[in-house]
Amino acid sequence: MPNLELIQALSGHKGIVWNVSWHPQGKIFASCGEDKTIKLWSKEGQEWTIKTVLVDGHQRTIREVAWSPCGNYLASASFDATTAIWDKKSGQFECNATLEGHENEVKSVAWSPSGQLLATCGRDKSVWVWEVAGEDEYECESVLNAHNQDVKKVAWHPSLDILASASYDNSVKLYKEDPADNDWSCIATLQSHESTVWSLTFDKTGERLATCSDDRTVKIWKEYKPDNQEGVIVTDRESVWKCVCTLSGFHTRCIYDIAWCHHTGFLATASGDDIIRIFKESEDSDPNSPTFDLVCTKLNAHSQDVNSVRWNPTGNKELLSCSDDGEIKIWSFSSD
Amino acid sequence: MASRFSGALQLTDLDDFITPSQECIKPVKIEKTKTKTGAKIKIGEDGYFDVSSGREQKLQKVEITLADCLACSGCITSAESVLVTKQSQEELLRVFSERKYTDNKGVSKDVSLIVISLSPQPTLSLAARYKLTPEEATHKLAGYFKSLGADLVLDMTIAEDLSLLEAQQEFLQRYQNQLADPSSKNMPMLASSCPGWVCYAEKTHGNFILPYISSSKSPQQVMGSLVKQYLSRSRELTPGEIYHVTVMPCYDKKLEASREDFYSEMLSCHDVDCVITAIELEQMLDVSSKSLNDITGAELDWPWGALGEAPPALRRHIGTGSGGYADHVFLYAAEQLFGESNAQLVYRNLRNPDFREVTLEKDGKEVLRFAVANGFRNIQNLVQKLKRGKSPYHYVEVMACPSGCLNGGAQVRPVTGESGRELVAQLEAMYSALPLAVPAESKLVRKLYAEWLDGKDSDKARAMLHTTYHAVEKSDIALNIKW
């Protein structure tokens, strides 16, 4: 029987823990929350403990943290309208750059696979693309006003500079850079969810995207490139993304987060019903109409809303979760 | 509906949960009459009625004007719906047919003279749309407005000339002031002709950025002063009798025209009453099933006295299609400050083609560094440079739209199959082929400084050709609280 086994429950934050982020090597992770602090955790023997607490970087709730692909930088997005970039060039973690420009709450931050670009989004309905312009220097590459409501999450394609965003306007949008003027533009709008899209995650190929929503469904979207075998009509030489699968009837409340493991293919969801669920694609799944099975339901994973789930990037099936209940939990998933 | 304002304006305070009309936080002054007890109000089908006096008295609806919206730190989107009523093509057509308009105070006024001022960018946009030469499009537009009932159709070259000349003078003054007091906020001087940029700066960066923004009025507002203050006198009219319409490349210009700063309490009128854009003109023609091609042309008017120079026409200035501010200020400063009468303007692109720099070297040392920053992303990078004390510039021509005013938000959209970039390139080519205007050589400029403005640098010139900016304080009332 597939099972999600609790390795350790971690407390340390005061109040809601909004987000957790694994260091790319999978031996450290960062957490953030309502208490305006970032905590860095690592293992001492068998126990996960707080190694560092980063304070004074933000004046309000920290909504998301993200490690750069090289593992040397940590970005934090805050309701104080700024995004801070932390590094430990001096020996200990310090905030050495602050990205300002959002009008109010920054809700999400993500590094591109190359680490040369950063994306942020927020309540001002905009998505910003920033470029690393030198030592502690970041320049704004683009401000995208494609959504007409609060933007909840940004995520990058695993290998290309393609950005996706999820919004309170029920849609998901994809963007890429136009080399002619180095500006970014929206290349696809994914519409099917009936309420706020809270989060999104690409699979390891980047040709599929999973989204989760307040409408209590998970949707799987597939990219159809120009001249695709299936004969899906593509205009302007830009790929078309179609919703090929909707997982409904599983979640009883809003789904706040979703994570697609790039090693195992498991999909984990974090829900307002306090449950963590894990889905697995069926053996005989048709690529144009895939099927997913719910293989694990962890009831009462937390005592309140589960805000975030993250697979360990090494593929060891460790899963991190955090919650309104103030706790972070580390789980080990056994699939058989 | 997507907002039609520039990106810079779309970003300001909005709430995910409250619709703009609910979010309006503007306190409204209510005229109260004294009663011993509280008022009794009855809600009827057609309004609210005060019944405390024994008989029903209809209560006035509270109305929020665009001026209220602009002075407020709340939303910007509701300003759009307010604009629609005040500055729409419907309103324009109504004024044409009734020759009456309602001013800010709700007073109905008779119109004796309808003046249309054409700026180059929307005229070129319509020329491209209807496959006309710029000259043909100018004449057809003049003919179209005349057929609707306009009395005068003018080009804005004179206003552009004055705006550029004032900016040049202001730069010299600021440069000297900065030398005298290196800690002052005179440099860099930032262009002020883009209302999207100005409004964003006022709402978001307030007193930090405003001292840098040039006080010289934009061509639209210089034209406003000229028409309402100078032309009215020569026609022996009160300014309120003139209805002044400008034709512009962006919606943000409507906000500019509606600013309190450009409303005279004394004359109780705005300098510009209505702003109409290229895209709205296209719609007006479409609605009446007309093409600009079919319109009988008319010549532009010249109400400024003896001609003396070339006939009135749409003209370009050297430099960008946004008005050429950086080029004009650069060349003038090079000559006046460093004796370089033949300075070369060689721009180099920075991170993207919308952020360009030009420098002047003297004896191997860099003495001037100017930039052109278009589009919201480059505004961000400029503002951040300023905030960190890392701006190397003396002057920056800032425009909120990528590629500047030729790509204004209310220019006619590209036809299917045509990219936005191709269209902008076409408009740039058309702009550069227009006859050149040289502000310093204009006889009309000299005449106006002498006859109207009491000379250069006079109090009157400052009053007519300069303006001020106001930081909008963010208010902390219940509906605005963010957690």
UniProtKB/TrEMBL annotation, chain A:
Keywords: Repeat, WD repeat
GO annotation (BP), single: iron-sulfur cluster assembly
One cellular component term from this protein's GO annotations in UniProt: cytosolic [4Fe-4S] assembly targeting complex
UniProt keyword Repeat present: yes
Sequence ranges of the WD repeats: 10-42, 55-96, 99-132, 144-176, 190-222, 299-336
Cross-referenced InterPro entries: CIAO1/Cia1, WD40/YVTN_repeat-like_dom_sf, WD40_PAC1, WD40_repeat_CS, WD40_repeat_dom_sf, WD40_rpt
Matching CDD domains: WD40
Top-level taxonomic group: Eukaryota
A UniProt-annotated Pfam family: WD40
Keyword Repeat: yes
Family: Belongs to the WD repeat CIA1 family.
Task of the protein: Essential component of the cytosolic iron-sulfur (Fe/S) protein assembly machinery. Required for the maturation of extramitochondrial Fe/S proteins. Key component of the cytosolic iron-sulfur protein assembly (CIA) complex, a multiprotein complex that mediates the incorporation of iron-sulfur cluster into extramitochondrial Fe/S proteins. As a CIA complex component, interacts specifically with CIAO2A or CIAO2B and MMS19 to assist different branches of iron-sulfur protein assembly, depending of its interactors. The complex CIAO1:CIAO2B:MMS19 binds to and facilitates the assembly of most cytosolic-nuclear Fe/S proteins. CIAO1:CIAO2A specifically matures ACO1 and stabilizes IREB2.
Protein name from the UniProt record: Probable cytosolic iron-sulfur protein assembly protein Ciao1
UniProtKB/TrEMBL annotation, chain B:
Record's keyword terms, sorted: 4Fe-4S, Iron, Iron-sulfur, Metal-binding
Residue span, Iron hydrogenase small subunit domain: 417-473
InterPro entries: Cytosolic_Fe-S_CAF, Fe_hydrogenase, Fe_hydrogenase_lsu_C, Fe_hydrogenase_ssu
MF terms in GO: 4 iron, 4 sulfur cluster binding
Role: Component of the cytosolic iron-sulfur (Fe/S) protein assembly machinery. Required for maturation of extramitochondrial Fe/S proteins.
Similarity comment text for this entry: Belongs to the NARF family.
Protein name: Iron hydrogenase small subunit domain-containing protein
Naturally occurring in which organism (per UniProt): Mythimna separata (Oriental armyworm)
